[in-house]
Design a protein that fits this description.
It is a single chain. This protein has 514 residues and is an alpha+beta fold. It has 3 domains: 22-189, 2-Layer Sandwich (Beta-Lactamase), CATH 3.30.450.20; 240-336, Orthogonal Bundle (Helix Hairpins); 337-506, Heat Shock Protein 90. Helices cover 55% and strands 15% of the residues. It has helices at 2-15, 18-70, 80-92, 122-130, 155-158, 185-236, 249-299, 305-336, 349-366, 385-401, 448-454, 460-470, 503-506; strands at 96-101, 106-109, 134-135, 144-152, 174-183, 344-348, 370-375, 380-384, 408-415, 419-426, 474-480, 484-492. Helix 2 packs antiparallel against helix 6 (185-236) and helix 7 (249-299) packs antiparallel against helix 8 (305-336). It starts with a helix and ends in an 8-residue tail after the last helix.
Length: 514
């Protein structure tokens, strides 16, 4: 049973191969014209040959009919000359000729078997009635044709012209009918010879077409196989170089698309390695600090209570720092999931901004930072309120933490016909232009010493940007070193679900924190 399934799978694989399909298409395209051409030529020859033979026989029958009238054969059938002419016709056309009078009596039969008998034939009666030549319908494969020619006194005879279709005179009526059976054996024999010759030629052409189709299928598919082999090497890990297949436009497009994916995968792998390294470093630092503090306490046999309390407070601080890093890492992982579902509902953005300012105000007061909120428009938008609050909170907290003493942070709410805007401006330390492209990278810090002092993990802006992208929005930043920084968030007023973006697309351009 398993072998049957395997064989069936192989057959399906063979039939689905582009090489097999090219071979079959080439074979059909090559054979179909040959078959139609052969059939058309043979049928045309048969039709033409029958037409020519019928026309020649009719011409001779007209002449014989004229001779019968001129010799008054219908009244006196004793004429050796006419009998010889009738016999010659039968011999030439390998057939039979009957001379029939107007009463349907057979006057002469070249086979000499029906003389004196009466014939009843629709072909003969129609010929007598209409005084026109009648020819039986020829069927392919029949070995004879029946021709009924009227024996009529005609205008052509009066003028001495014995050729052409007889046209009866005003007083002329059909005196009888010539009924001829014309053999087509010679046509059928020739047709059979031509058919055999055509079949032989067709067999030769079929062999040539099969060989050419096989060669074409190999040649045409070779670039695709080379491309497949190159991709297989990359997949197996033997190579990480971009693939190339310049032979066809299609293979170039496939190679270009694969190289784009390969580049993204390499960048993702490098980013993953860097991320693991940074996570290891960030998690190891608090652990190392706690280990040092614990070793110091262990080495002090009679350490005072104040030292124990101070060291334990430091250890608690490092544990909180470790928890913050882990919590933000978990948040970032959830943000990177492509199947994450937003709880989108209409939200008053102005009220949400007021609430965020209340949350951050204690931190700002502690650092003597002035907070200001400006409402340039009343905004109702479809957003995930929890993530919107996180976006605004992260931006305002960063603006407070990286500000100067007695500085100022201003958040502005505005909108247009399609989007609403959240602008957070501070009068802090600012950033150099070279730093602006890196601030969304994970664990990136502009001022590392100050970030560690205020407990920053380097993940806040990365999380913020991911949340904005989930809303199909964007974030822009401008900064002047020593003067301050301005973040501008743009989010659509109406959330329109789109095809899910991958985590890689969401992170395109880098992630991180200030």
């Amino acid at each position: 049973m398993k072998n049957d399934r395997t064989d069936k799978g192989r057959r399906l694989e063979f039939l689905s191969s582009i090489r097999t399909r090219i071979f079959l298409v080439s074979l059909v395209i090559g054979l179909a014209p040959c078959l139609f051409l052969q059939r058309g030529i043979l049928e045309n020859y048969e039709r033409r040959a029958v037409g020519v033979q019928t026309g020649q026989a009719q011409t001779q029958l007209r002449a014989i009919a004229n001779h019968l009238i001129l010799s008054d054969y219908m009244n006196d059938s004793q004429s050796d000359l006419i009998d010889a002419e009738l016999a010659e016709f039968s011999s030439i056309y390998d057939g039979r000729l009957l001379v029939i009078d107007s009463s349907l009596n057979i006057i002469k039969d070249t086979y000499s078997v029906s003389d004196g008998r009466v014939i009843i034939s629709e072909l003969v009666t129609d010929c007598l009635r209409t005084s026109t030549t009648k020819v039986s319908n020829y069927q392919s494969g029949d070995s004879y044709i029946l021709i009924a020619m009227p024996i009529t006194e005609t205008l052509s005879l009066e003028s001495g012209d014995h050729s052409g279709e007889p046209q009866p005179t005003e007083s002329g009526a059909s005196q009888g009918v010539l009924l001829a059976s014309v053999s087509t054996e010679n046509i059928l024999t020739t047709l059979a010879l031509l058919t055999r010759s055509a079949l032989l030629m067709e067999l030769i052409i079929v062999v040539i077409i099969i060989v050419l189709s096989f060669i074409f299928s190999i040649v045409l598919v070779t670039p695709f196989e080379k491309l497949s082999q190159s991709i297989a090497k990359v997949r197996a890990g033997f190579s990480s170089k971009p693939v190339s297949a310049p032979e066809y436009l299609e293979t170039r497009h496939i190679a270009e698309a694969f190289n784009v994916v390969l580049g993204r995968m390499n960048a993702l792998d490098a980013s993953r390695q860097e991320f693991v390294s940074n996570v290891s470093h960030e998690l190891k630092t608090p652990m190392a600090s706690m280990k040092v503090l614990a070793d110091v306490l262990m080495s002090q046999e009679h350490a005072p209570e104040e030292m124990y309390r101070e060291f334990l407070q430091d250890i608690c601080h490092e544990i909180d720092r470790e928890n913050n890093i882990i919590q933000e890492l978990l948040t970032l992982v959830r943000m990177d999931r492509t199947d994450i579902a937003l709880k989108v509902e209409p939200v008053n953005i102005n009220d949400a901004a007021e609430q965020v300012m209340k949350w951050v105000r204690p931190i700002a007061d502690e650092n003597d930072i002035q907070l200001a909120l400006e409402h340039k428009a009343q905004v109702i938008a479809e957003v995930d309120e929890t993530r919107l609050n996180m976006i605004m909170t992260n931006l305002v907290e960063n603006a407070v933490k990286y500000n100067r003493k007695f500085g100022k942070v201003t958040m502005t709410i505005d909108k247009d016909n399609q989007n609403f805007f959240i602008t957070v401006e501070d009068t802090g330390i600012g950033m150099a232009e070279a730093e602006l492209d890196k601030i969304y990278e994970r664990f990136y810090r502009v001022d590392k010493s100050r970030s560690r002092e205020i407990g920053g993990t380097g993940l806040g802006l990365s999380i913020t940007r991911s949340a904005i992208l989930l809303h199909h929005g964007k974030i822009d930043v401008t900064s002047v070193e020593g003067e301050g920084t301005t973040f501008t968030v743009t989010i659509p007023l109406i959330y329109e679900p789109e095809p899910e973006m991958t985590g890689l697309e969401q992170r395109k351009g880098g992630n991180g924190n200030e």
